[in-house]
Amino acid sequence: CTEKYAEKYYNRPDVQKALHANATKIPYKWTACSDILNRNWNDTEASILPIYRQLMAARLRIWVFSGDVDSVVPVTATRYSLEQLKLQVKIPWYPWYVKKQVGGWTEVYEGLTFATVRGAGHEVPLFKPRAALELFTSFLRGNPLPKS
Amino acid sequence: GGDEERDRIVGLPGQPKVTFNQFSGYVTVNEVAGRALFYWLTEAVSNPLSKPLVVWLNGGPGCSSIAYGASEEIGPFRINSSASGLHLNKFSWNRIANLLFLETPAGVGFSYSNKSSDLFDTGDRRTAKDSLKFLVRWMDRFPRYKQREIYITGESYAGHYVPQLAREILTYNANSKHPLNLKGIMVGNAVTDNYYDNLGTVMYWWSHAMISDKTYHQLMNICDFHRQKNSEECESLYSYAMDREFGNIDQYNIYAPPCN
Lengths: 148, 260
Known about the structure:
heterodimer, A: alpha+beta, 4 strands, 36% helix, B: alpha/beta, two-stranded antiparallel sheet, 7 helices, 19% strand, globular
């Protein structure tokens, strides 16, 4: 429900002034999501998997995570998609921990790390902020997620 | 630092005292159309010069990184329920990185275009190209970030934006004297592949007992998950599953109470 607070806050003239925003007087209100853009999106790639192959070839660090109680882009969708990359397993599947609790499960492949976040919905850092920060820390350091 | 200083946020209404610097403003990405993208940089709480730059993109398509990434997820502030002020998020990602929230494409949040038709014919390709243009020009405004390690992160439909922007950067770097120091990407609950995403979604609904066996089998037999647009018969099955079988739930977090 917190996006309703954002709709109020970011439409306040004093907030817009402090942010140096809307100086040109945009002819519509600030909204969290634009229906016009969403309805008129006319260029979308059917699959991003070929790009992953390009990015892995360029040796970029790639992490993919999934909150496991999201039913909009759920964990099974991500797993079916990633499976198509047919990656070699580097560190086999294991539960990762945050504050002595299972944060989720993870597997490290050659070129890509996949992790689930237990109990998190679509917006993982909103529902599981501590676990998300742990995930982000490991990602930035280039370390596998903690095993204990 | 003139341009940078013009973008400095002195303080947001109702903001608690903080130790980090913030900047926000517009970067023009297309002069002819008058397209300008809005950003909000919240620097790391300590030693920002030694920390990487992390670009956060929200999906939708058409949703705001400031609404979601900054204000609900990884940003330092949370908005209170009356929208009268802000309080701190103790798990903000700016504890360990400089966070750049980008509103992309034009039409999202405060980002805009003077050519109104831009709102009706946008898509993945323009989003990636404008976002790259933004980053290159933003670096000119903040030259101290030019050699900095860059990571791009995001969620949902940003499963398209993030890899596409990364690919755009690699192409740019191949022909540039001043390459961007992109190190990696991270995406969550990311839209990845139409066919396998749809297959996995229906599988999830069934395996989590959100739909009946009958609806599951009908969806699997009638819907062609390769298609961009579903048949009417398939659409009505989706509607039946959501309206009659899911019930009043939050599809984005199936065990949380819905937001009424």
